[in-house]
Amino acid sequence: MQKLSRSIALLAAMVLILAACQGTNTGNSSASTGSGGAGATKGTIVIGVDLPLSGGEAPNGQPTLSGIKLAIEKANGQAGGYKIETDVRDDAVNGTHNPEQGATNVQALIANENVIAMVGPFNSNVGKAEIPLTSPAGLLQCSPANTNPSLTKKGADGKFLRGDNPVSYIRVATTDDIQGPALADYLYTTLKKTKVFIVDDTETYGKGLADTFEAKFKDLGGTVTARQGVPNPDGSADYTSILTAAKGAGPDSVMYGGVTTTGGAKLRTQMADVGMGDLSYIGGDGIVDGSGDTTSSYVNLAGPAAANSFGSVAATHDIPNAGDFAAAFKAKYATDPGAYSAPAYACTQVILAAVEAVAKDAKDMKDLREKVRAYVTTGGQKFDTALGPVSFDENGDSSQKVISFYKTDMTAADGKGDWVFASQKDFAGQ
Amino acid sequence: MDLSVFTQQFFNALSLGAIYALIALGYTMVYGIIELINFAHGDVFMVGAFTAMWLLTVPFSQSGAIHNPILLAGLLIVVFAITMTFMGFVGMGIERFAYRPLRNAPRLAPLLTAIGVSFILQNIIQTIFGPSPRRTPKVFPTDIRFDLFGASISLLSIFIFVLTLALIIGLQTFIGRTRLGRAMRATAQDRQAAQLMGVNINRTIALTFFIGSALAGAGGVVYGLYFGQIGFTLGFSAGLKAFTAAVLGGIGNTTGAALGGFLIGFVEVYSGQFGLFRWSEAIVFGVLIVVLVFRPSGLLGQPLGERA
Predict the structure, then answer these.
(1) pTM of the model
(2) Tens digit of pLDDT for each residue in A3-58?
(3) Which of A21, A30, A200, B133 has its CA 20 to 30 A from that of A74?
(4) What chain B residue is nearest to A202 in terms of C-alpha separation?
(5) Taking CB atoms and an 8 Å cutoff, what residues of chain A touch B231?
(6) ipTM of the complex
(7) Where are the alpha helices (DSSP H) in A322-362?
C-alpha cells in the first residue's frame, strides 16, 4: 500500500515537472517569435485602467478614460517598439465607486503579466484599497485624481500604505493637504466669507479634505460655526435636521467635504428648504463633475439650487497648449475635456515615456513592468506632459502643486448650468 | 435649544415622519390581513418615487418651482392620482402573482418571494432609469414660508403634514365605517369565518394590497418632492425604517404604524439636532429594542383581536 502511494506521488511529481518545463518552453518560444517576427513591434503590452465608469460616477470616469485613450492615440498606439492596448475596468458598483471592486480589478490587472502599468483609480478610498496590492506586485499605478494625502504618507501606525515595498504608486493630482487649505484660502480671501459650516461624508476623501480645510480656515482667522459628519452611502440621508441646527449660529457659507454621489447635491438642495439657499457653497473636486446636461452631475442634481457654488480641481487648468489639447479632445469626442481628462492624459504620457526609455533593456514582460516602475519612481525623472513638466518625489507625489477654482454659472450649457473656470493658484513652496 | 429651533425641527420631523408613516401603513395592513411581512413594500415606495419623477419631468416637463398656485395644485392632484392608482395596481399584481399562489404554503415561502419581488422591482428601475441618482423637480416654491413660534415653515412641510393626516384619517374611516373596511377587519380576524359569512377573501386581500401600495406611492411622491433626489436603492433603508415603525407601533395596527412613523422621524431629526447624526439609526433601533422588551406587541399593538 505504502509503495503504491509513493509511486503515485512520484508520478504526480514527474507530471508537474513536465508541465513546468513545457510552461517555460512556450514562454520562450512566444517571446522569440515576438522579437524576431516583425522587428519594429516586439509584441503587445497593456496599460491597465481602473476608473468608476458607470452610473452616478460616469461624469467622473468617462472623460478621464477619454484622456487616457487620446494619449495612446497621439503616440500612434505604440511605445518602445511595443503595440499598446488597454484593459479598462469599472470600479463603480450600483453607480458608486467601490473599494472592494477596485481591489478585485487591480488583482486581475496584476495577474496579467502583459500589464506593465496602470492608470487609476479616481477615488481616494479606492486607492487606499489598491495600493497595498499593486505595491508588492511592483505594478506602476498613476492616479490622475486621487487627492487624499494619507495614500502616500505614513499613517498613525508609522507605516506607509505600500508597506516596505518600493514606491509603485504615483499621482499627478495635487493632494488635499494643499487642496483643503486652498479652498479655505479661496473662501476667506477671495469670497470674503468668515463663518463657515462644514459637512463631510465621513469617507477617506471627504473627511480628509474637510479636516485640512477646517485647520487652514481657522488659521486665517475664520470661524467654523459647526462641523458634522454624515455617512450617506446610499444617498438616503436627510440633511434638514443638521442644517436647521447649524442655522442658529449664522454661518455665511457651507463647506462640503465629499462627492456628488455621497450627498453633495442633496445637501445644497436642502439648504434652500431650510432657508439657507442664499449662502455660498464650496466643495472640492468631488462636486466639480460636469454640466447640468450630464445626468447625475452636481449641477444636474442640484438644479437651480446649484447657483452660487464654488469648487476646486486639484490640477492646473491653464495647461500649456490648452487650446491644442481641448481641440484634439473635442475633435475626437465631440465634447469638452472633463476636469481630470488632462491629468489622465499626463499619466498615460508618463507611462509611455517610461516604456520608451526602458524597453530596449527589458528581458521579459516581468522585467519591463519592474523597469517602468523603477524609471518613473526613482531618480526624479522629469516628464514633459500635457500638464507641463512633472516629476515625482520619493513618495510618488507630483511636483506640481496647482489648484484651479471653479464657480457655477447657471446660464452656461444652454441655461442648464455648468462649472466655469474662475482662477488658479500655484501652491508650490508654501 | 431655543423655541424657534425646536419648532423648526418639529416640522422637519413631521415631514420625515410622514414619509415613514405612509410606508409603514402598507406594511402593517398587509401583515394584519395575511400575516406576511411584505419586504417588497419599500421598493413599491421607490417605484412610486420614480413614477412621480417621470411624470413631472417627461409628460409635464417641469424643472423647478411653480409659482402659479392653481397650476401647482392641478399638477399635484394629477401626479398623486396617477402615481397612487398605478402603484395600487402594481401592489395588486404583486399579490396576485407572487403571494396568492403561496397563501397556504409555509410562512417562509412568501417571505422569500417578497425578497425576490424586491430585487425584481429594483432591477427594473435600474434598467430603465440607470443606477445613478436622479433629480425630482422641487415644484414647491421654497420662498413661500409661514412664521410660527419664530420658526419659518415651508409650504411643502405643511402640505406633507396635511396630506398625510388626511390620508391616515381617510384610511381609518374607510376601515372603520365602510362595508369593505368591515370585510377587511373580518378577514384579518378570522379568514375562514369571514369567508363563511360571504366575504370575498381574494378581493378583500387584493384591496388591502391596493390601498397599502397606493399609500406607499403617495409616500414616494412626497419623498421626491421633499428630497429632490431619488435613487433605485432608496426603498431598502426607507422600507427598513418604515418596517421598524410598524413594529414599534404594534404590527397590524394602522394607528400604531402612523405613530411609529412619526416617532422615528422625531428620533432621527432630534439626534441630528444634538450632533448625534451618525448615531441616529442606532438610536432608532435602540428605541425599538427597549419598546419590544417592555411591550412585545408594540406601543399600541393588540396581540389578538382586531388587527387591520
Answers:
(1) 0.81
(2) 555 555 555 555 545 444 444 333 333 333 333 334 456 889 999 999 999 877 88
(3) A30
(4) B278
(5) 95, 234-236
(6) 0.86
(7) 322-333, 341-358
